[in-house]
Write a structure and sequence with these properties.
Largest sheet: 8 strands, mixed
Mean pLDDT: 90
Shape: globular
Bound molecules: phosphoenolpyruvate, magnesium ion
Number of helices: 21
Distance between the termini: 33 Å
Number of strands: 17
Helix content: 40-55%
Oligomer: single chain
């Protein structure tokens, strides 16, 4: 039989091949007995016992997740405990038991009512329905003595298939043993997807009912790059998939074949991503998107909390550099408690450094204090501070003044603060044009191609309809990159790239040829880019870049690439 391809939403750009194992946690309850036969008091006691036991389990899983994945991800279990102990839910269960239902049936009916309510809401609230299902299934398992399928002890090489995976399900998966997972439902930002990325597990979600055609024991390839699930794959497909999973992790730094060192670093947004980035051989962090520390919460993290996070980041890379970008909110990254203005064109409004030098000046200062204190208290690694969305020399100078003042303040408090490396993102046409003026103010540039392509090409980064225009291979984008590297030539300013373009191995030679000496990307692509760097000859790369810069169209550039 020939292979079958099912398509869903790509979650983790990794490929895995293994044996399908269906995970079906929902136990169908038998018909309830007649109300007269139900001992209400005993059922209520059974419910309360199950609730206590569930709470103890959740506490243990919370701890385990905090250790293996991270504090932020572990917080989801707090939400589970809240549902578990919610008085409205407890009252609903008690009322149904009072009406003559056994505890398990009362739990199922009550939770299903709340699941329906949440599922009908928009966005984040709808995602809470998954949390409710998770708590319901846990209680049902405890009440029915059901054997829970042990996701933490699956045979090596299992590909888990499920209707959906809850956060606690996903956190149990051991990345060393599980080859991947695919689910019928789910989107890119679902909790399961976030956990999968943090744990570097190949995953595809939202495949739809077609996934149920896959039988236990069938061989399956999970292609987290294309979002495909290949069932009963051909030998060629398996070979290609296995190649993908075997990209050798290189702990050591890499240089081109003719000896030019290229730093290959990782982009992170949460502390949970630090460990996996180091595990995949990243030399350091080239972009810490600190705004992620400010999302999904009711108020900003204070200096102490930020200090702990930055210290952990620096300590994770004792030999490397950690580039922390100051808060970049606005645009497509709203933060409800910051009271961002309602703008017609948020990408062209109060974003990034514009807010840090304006309405968020206090947050900016707190963040710099936390960063410099973390740096002062670690005797390993090195910190670099980077400003987002810079367009003018005045912005750099104003931020520099705040940085210098924070250094002085800390010193007067007896803290041995040092001025860290200081740089800016080049992600606007203005910054690329003015890079030759910026060089005397900074230690480095990092090119943010996600925004640079958007602003150079006037093509919104999230809009599929203009995706071809916003492509990194557009000659106009390449010329903006070239303007930046040329401006830094002959100075001490180093130039890196932290936009998505940096993580595509097909573009590595071109980027080296354009003069970049640091590339920072999603951790999963670090091994492949390191491998590519080691094959490159700098003279050939420079010649390639020259031809690409002379190209008149994206197609001409594409034709030049491997
Ligand atoms: C970029 O714009 O390329 C970048 C790295 O920043 P972000 O994607 O966070 O806007
Ligand atoms: Mg950007």
């Amino acid at each position: 039989m020939s292979e079958r391809r099912l398509s869903g939403v790509d979650v983790t750009p990794l490929t895995g091949v293994g044996t399908a194992v269906w995970y079906r946690p929902d136990a169908d309850l038998p018909e309830p007995p007649a109300p007269a036969e139900v001992d209400g008091e005993a059922e209520l006691a059974a419910f309360e016992d199950a609730r206590d036991e569930a709470e103890a389990e959740l506490d243990a899983e919370r701890e385990r997740t905090a250790e293996r994945v991270g504090e932020d991800e572990a917080a989801v279990f707090d939400a589970h405990v809240q549902f578990l102990t919610d008085p409205q839910i407890a009252d609903g269960v008690a009322e149904r038991i009072d009406d003559g239902l056994p505890a398990a049936h009362a739990v199922a009916e009550t939770f299903d009512e709340f699941v329906e309510r949440f599922a009908a809401m928009d966005g984040k609230m709808a995602e809470r329905a998954d949390d409710l299902r998770d708590v319901r299934d846990r209680l049902l398992r405890l009440l029915t003595d059901g054997e829970r399928v042990d996701l933490s002890a699956l045979p090596d090489g299992s590909v888990v298939l499920a209707e959906r995976l809850t956060p606690s399900d996903t956190a149990q998966l051991d990345p060393e043993r599980v080859a991947g997972f695919a689910t019928v439902t789910g989107g890119r930002t679902s909790h399961a997807a976030i956990f999968a990325r943090s744990l570097a597990i190949p995953a595809v979600v939202g495949v739809g009912d077609a996934l149920t055609s896959v039988a236990d024991g069938e061989t399956v390839v999970i292609d987290g790059t294309t979002g495909e699930v290949v069932v009963d794959p051909s030998d060629d497909t398996v070979a290609a998939a296995s190649e993908g999973t075997e990209a050798r992790v290189r702990e050591e730094r890499v240089e081109t074949a003719d000896g030019r060192e290229i730093e290959v670093a990782a982009n992170v947004g949460t502390p949970a991503e630090l460990g996996p980035a180091a595990d995949r051989g990243a030399d350091g962090i080239g972009l810490f998107r600190t705004e992620f520390l400010f999302l999904d919460r009711d108020d900003a993290p204070d200096e102490a909390e930020q200090y702990e996070t930055y210290k952990r980041a620096i300590e994770t890379f004792p030999e490397g550099r950690v580039v922390v970008r100051t808060l970049d909110v606005g645009g497509d990254k709203p933060v409800p408690y910051l009271d961002l203005p309602d703008e017609e064109n948020p990408f062209l409004g109060e974003r990034g450094i514009r807010r840090s030098l304006g309405p968020d000046a206090d947050l900016f200062e707190t963040q710099l204090r936390a960063l410099l204190r973390a740096d002062a208290d670690t005797d390993v690694g090195s910190l670099a501070v980077m400003l987002p969305l810079v367009t003018t020399v005045e912005e750099i100078a104003a931020a520099e003044t705040v940085l210098d003042r924070v250094v002085e303040d800390l010193r007067s408090e007896g803290i041995e603060a040092e001025r860290p490396e200081f740089g800016v993102m080049i992600e606007t046409p203005a910054a690329a044009f003015m890079a030759d003026e910026f060089v005397s103010h900074v230690d480095f540039f990092s090119i943010g191609t996600n925004d640079l392509a958007q602003y150079v090409m006037a093509a919104e980064r999230g809009n599929d309809a203009v995706a071809d225009l916003g492509d990194f291979r557009q000659p106009a984008v390449l010329r903006a990159i070239d303007a930046t590297t040329t401006a830094a030539e002959g100075t001490d300013v180093w130039v890196g790239m932290c936009g998505e373009m940096a993580g595509d191995p097909a573009l590595t030679e071109l980027l080296v040829g354009l003069g970049l000496t640091e590339l920072s990307m999603s951790a999963v692509t670090v091994p492949a880019v390191k491998e590519r760097v080691s094959e490159i000859d700098t003279a050939a790369a420079t010649a390639l870049a020259e031809r690409a810069l002379a190209a008149a169209s994206r197609d001409e550039v594409t034709d030049l690439l491997p």
